[in-house]
Amino acid sequence: MLNSGARINEIQNSEESKRLLAAQRQTYTDAKLVDLVNACVCLLLPLGVTVAQIFLNVPSEAIILVWIATVVAGICLPKRSKHLVDEAAAMQQRFDSDVFGIKFENVSRDDRRIASQAGRYRERHDGDGKFRLDNWYSVDIEDARPGDAIARCQRQNTEWTKRLLKRSICIEICIAVIVAAALAVLVLRLGINPFNLFFLFSIIGWMIQRVVECRDAFARVGALAYSLSSFRLSSKEDILRVQEKIFEYRKAPYLVPDWLYALFKGRDETATMN
User: Fold this and answer.
1) Which residues touch 170 (CB under 8 Å, ≥6 apart)?
2) Which residues cross the membrane (predicted)?
3) How far apart (Å, rounded) are the C-alpha atoms in residues 201 and 46?
4) Would you state the pLDDT for residue 180?
5) What is the rounded distance in angstroms from the CA atom of residue 109 to the CA atom of residue 162?
6) Residues 81, 253: Cα–Cα separation, whole Å
7) Phi, psi at 238, each rounded to 5°
8) Whole-number percent of the chain with pLDDT over 70
9) CA separation for the pair 102, 146 (Å, rounded)
10) Residue 159: which of 74, 246, 88 has the closest Cα?
11) Tell me, what DSSP letter sits at residue 142?
12) Which backbone phi and psi does 236 adopt, to 5 degrees?
């Protein structure tokens, strides 16, 4: 039986629901940390070596070690990140299943893992208002009928997701352009041995991987937005179809940084409440 707006508000603020939210947030944060390590090893480290080779005589042994590190990290770390993202998406799917009163597929059943991750999250963010867990769906649904209430929650989820994704990718593109321009100036103004630019291939490879992740995320959020515009959404069948798109986006490899989420949380919440 689909839950009404009043029932959704009640359940989403229960201790069990907040435990699931804490667990999924901590698991996504773990995945972002893995991605950060991957970026440091596969992007910043080669970039640092490339700049160092312009001015210094870097030993060949160090270059070989850095190359090995980039290869190993580029293979192992994305797999670990994907596992964590899938795990977090399943936790959040269970939250939505409980809150909406619908039995969704792909929900997490690992209560021990959920408890562990929730405990870690609460230790880190106890008293931090920017990462509060109550009123996850802040849209006004108190008097809404079951199907309409769920549709409003799904729309808020989608709009918030689109805003964060576009903002994050724009910031990342700006940073990439600045770094690329600075490196190009160094290369063009100085007499550079082509061998010293060897690690540019590693950097370019990481950037290509990042572009693919961005395209994947945009495609998934585009499919989600289309499903919201094409379905009636008051029926259980359409809600299930939209939720499947939401779950697919939550498994996207591109993750928005926690600091960006916290920075714009108030603004995005206000913009998506209607």
Assistant:
1) none
2) 33-56, 62-78, 169-188
3) 9
4) 75
5) 29
6) 8
7) -70, -35
8) 89
9) 11
10) 246
11) T
12) -65, -40
Q: Provide the residue type at 189 as one letter.
A: R
Which residues touch 17 (CB under 8 Å, ≥6 apart)? Answer: 11, 95, 98, 99, 136
- Alpha-carbon span 137 to 117, nearest angstrom: 21
- Measured distance CA(82)–CA(18) in Å, rounded: 24
Within the chain, where are the H helices?
5-12, 15-39, 45-55, 60-100, 111-125, 146-189, 200-230, 236-250, 258-271
| pLDDT tens-digit map of 97-114 | 999 999 999 999 999 999
- So what's the pLDDT on residue 195? 56
User: In this structure, what token pair is assigned to residue 149?
Assistant: 């209430």
For 26, counting Cβ atoms within 10 Å of its Cβ (0-12 exposed, 13-18 middle, 19+ buried), the class is buried
**Angle, alpha carbons 6-27-167 (nearest 5°):** 75
DSSP-derived letter for residue 41 is: I
Residues counted in the chain: 274
- Indicate the pLDDT class of residue 1, thresholds 50, 70 and 90: confident
Phi/psi class of residue 128: alpha, beta or left (left: φ > 0; alpha: ψ in -120 to 50)? Answer: beta
